[in-house]
Amino acid sequence: MIYTFARVGAVLQVNVGDYFSQGSRGWVRLHEKGGKKHEAPCVPKLEAYLDAYIAAAGTPLRAQQIFMTGVMMKRRSTSTRK
Predict the structure, then answer these.
(1) Rg (CA), the chain
(2) How far is C-alpha 75 from the chain's CA centre?
(3) Does the pLDDT at position 73 exceed 60?
(4) What is the pLDDT of residue 27?
(5) What is the pLDDT of residue 51?
(6) Per-residue DSSP letters for 14-82?
(7) CATH for 2-79?
(8) Residue scoring higher pLDDT (11 or 4)
(9) Domain ranges of the chain
(10) How many Å apart are CA 42 and CA 80, to the nearest integer?
(11) Mean pLDDT of all residues in the chain?
(12) Which one of 1, 33, 42, 60 has the fewest beta carbons within 10 angstroms of its own beta carbon?
């Protein structure tokens, strides 16, 4: 998410519902420190990356985080083994 110049923590909190279209452009809603929300337009390359990433992940829930950390992925894989 270098294209938005966002903090790593803000990027890791982005949910699927935080990536949206407004007009002909994609936007990302970032959750910054102190509960502030910041909306940033996506450059075409970022839109293409996010569209491909979300499509490859299937159809995740809107509240699900886009970028899973290693801990989240480990929890997810152990919970599906039951």
Answers:
(1) 13
(2) 19
(3) no
(4) 93
(5) 87
(6) -BGGGEEEETTEEEEEEE-GGG-EEEEEPPHHHHHHHHHHHHHT-S--TTSBSS--HHHHHHHHHHS--
(7) 1.10.443.10
(8) 11
(9) 2-79
(10) 34
(11) 76
(12) 33
Residue with tokens 């940033």: 40
Token pair in block for residue 65 = 């985080």
C-alpha separations of 24 from 2, 9, 20 in Å: 21, 28, 10
**Cα 12–Cα 7–Cα 30 angle in degrees, nearest 5:** 60
Q: Is the pLDDT of residue 60 over 90?
A: no
Single-letter amino acid code for the residue at 48: A
Distances in Å between the Cα of 31 and the Cα atoms of 34, 73, 80 are 9, 21, 29
Tokens of residue 10, six digits? 């803000």
